[in-house]
Specification:
The protein has helices at residues 7-27, 46-62, 94-98, 170-181, 193-202, 215-227, 252-262, 271-281, 289-297, 300-305, and strands spanning 35-39, 42-45, 67-70, 84-92, 105-112, 115-123, 128-133, 138-140, 143-144, 157-160, 186-188, 207-211, 231-233, 246-250. Helix 1 packs antiparallel against helix 2 and helix 5 (193-202) runs parallel beside helix 6 (215-227). It has a seven-stranded mixed β-sheet with strand order 3-4-5-6-7-8-9, with helices on both faces. It is built from ten helices and 14 strands. It folds into two domains: 7-144, Fructose-1,6-Bisphosphatase, subunit A, domain 1 (Fructose-1,6-Bisphosphatase, Chain A, domain 1), CATH 3.30.540.10; 153-305, D-Maltodextrin-Binding Protein, domain 2 (3-Layer(aba) Sandwich), CATH 3.40.190. The chain is an alpha+beta fold.
Length: 309
């Protein structure tokens, strides 16, 4: 690679590749990988732990005064009061990994005073390396990334994540998914949020949304999106989303249109919006929603499409 990467990104790349080597070796014999369950449908493997340890050792060897926030070990390692905190997901997409589905990645971000400034997302199955430094753009290997130029929601391909934890609001999600699917070209569920965000940055998809995510799921990917010209926030469009377990990303036009659809599903939606949503969800299935709702909403999409950037 000929890119002149920021020194901290270079260290993160070294860490990500070390983790990727561990993951690739384990993928050759997945049946022998020891798996445990953190919560219902939430798995962790010895590979997650080994990859995380390799990342932490690499980062702290280079920057012993930095803090660490990692999925498996939390804040156990690194300095506890540093302004520099590495946010790590050693294997995003563990469920895919243990089934042999090659859609997973390593995600490493650096937050400085709470703001994400460096990012690496590494897909070891494809040897795809996504990098970003705040103010210096986002890259896939040596190619500069830009978000998609599609502006109409009906042409947009979106990705999401399905609820899988006990206590998740499945009914709410199904309503939300139906609300989005009828307006778009397609909805996908790859299974690794960091890659979903990287793909928005690369222009492969126009947008991404998911609830229940932790900072290590979205920290690196969010910087990739913004450095590629996209927008990231919660479902109401607030940019301070990292700890809110609610993430929406997209190119600027699609992002704006998705807020108008997803805002009412946000935990930050108004009481009136939440009440209307509950009422709509309990309406009979044969309710003429296709006629009434579409007649009201159809004129609004061109209006959103023509909104300024």
């Amino acid at each position: 690679m000929s890119l002149n990467l920021h020194p901290m990104v270079n260290v993160a790349v070294k860490a990500a590749r070390a983790a990727g080597s561990i993951i690739n070796r384990a993928a050759l014999d997945i049946e022998s990988v020891r798996i445990s369950q953190k919560k219902a449908n939430d798995f962790v493997t010895e590979v997650d732990h080994a990859a995380e340890q390799a990342i932490i050792e690499t980062l702290l060897t280079a920057y012993p005064g930095h803090g660490i926030l990692a999925e498996e070990s939390g804040r156990e390692h690194g300095a506890k009061d540093s302004e520099f905190v590495w946010i790590i997901d050693p294997l995003d997409g563990t469920t895919n990994f243990i089934h042999g589905l090659p859609v997973y990645c390593v995600s490493i971000a650096l937050a400085v005073k709470g703001k994400i400034e460096q990012a690496v997302v590494y897909d070891p199955t494809r040897n795809d390396l996504f990098t970003a430094t705040k103010g210096r753009g986002a890259y896939l290997n040596d190619r500069r990334l830009r978000v998609s130029k599609r502006i109409h929601l009906k042409d947009a391909l979106l990705s999401t994540g399905f609820p899988f934890r006990p206590g998740d609001n499945f009914a709410n999600y199904l309503t939300m998914m139906g609300d989005v699917m009828k307006r778009t070209a397609g909805l996908r569920r790859p299974g690794a949020a960091a890659l979903d965000l990287a793909y928005v940055a690369a222009g492969y998809t126009e947008g991404f949304f998911e609830t229940g995510l932790q900072p290590w799921d979205v920290a690196a990917g969010s910087l990739l999106v913004t450095e590629a010209g996209g927008l990231v926030g919660n479902f109401t469009g607030e940019a301070d989303f990292l700890d809110q377990q609610e993430c929406l990303a997209g190119n600027p036009r699609i992002y704006g249109q998705l807020i108008s659809i997803l805002g009412k599903y946000s935990k930050f939606a108004s009481a009136g919006e939440k009440a209307a949503l509950r009422q709509a969800r309990h309406a009979p299935i044969n309710d003429p929603e296709g006629e009434g709702a579409d007649e009201e909403e159809a004129p609004q999409e061109p209006e959103a499409d023509s909104a300024p950037l």
